[in-house]
Amino acid sequence: MLPVENQVEALQKMTESFFICLFGGVSYYGLEMLWQGTSHWSMALCGAIGFFHLYRINRRYLRIPLPLRALMGACFITAMELTVGCILNLGLGWNIWDYSALPLHFLGQICLPYSILWFLLCFPVAALSRWIRRVVFLSDA
């Protein structure tokens, strides 16, 4: 059995991870509703995974310049979008999104304009991640 200090630390990490995923899922689903007027439950899951990953990038790699962290985040989100799109849209035929009409798309699942948008959104997400760490979890790390 783990010492009490390790148990408390593990519980804190689990609580933080749960909160970050819940916040990311609800926020992304809400943003899609505002942007397009519709969304799909799978986008809440993608939002949870994406925000968790961006939060981790901005927690672990603080010494890396913000534009590089934003590029890392945009690459992750774009890769996740391609993977999920190939499974849900192309494989299962759910047709949640289709970027075929947008320039520089790949299989209609990812496109350069949205990758640039993900890059730009990573800047406020970095600030939000820092605020959450300091205010919600009372941590300077």
The helix/strand series, from N terminus to C terminus, equals HHHEEH
Low-confidence stretches: none
Roughly how many Å apart are the termini? 27 Å
Biggest sheet architecture: 2 strands, antiparallel
Radius of gyration: 17 Å
In percent, how much strand structure appears in the residues? under 5%
Structural class: mainly alpha
**Average pLDDT:** 95
Total number of strands: 2
Instruction: Please tell me what the overall shape is.
Output: globular
Helix content: over 70%
Number of helices: 4
Domain module tally: 1
Which sequence of strands runs across the widest sheet? 1-2
How would you describe this structure to a colleague?
74% of the residues lie in helices and 3% in strands. With 141 residues, the chain is mostly helical. It has one domain (7-136). A two-stranded antiparallel ribbon has the order 1-2. It is globular.
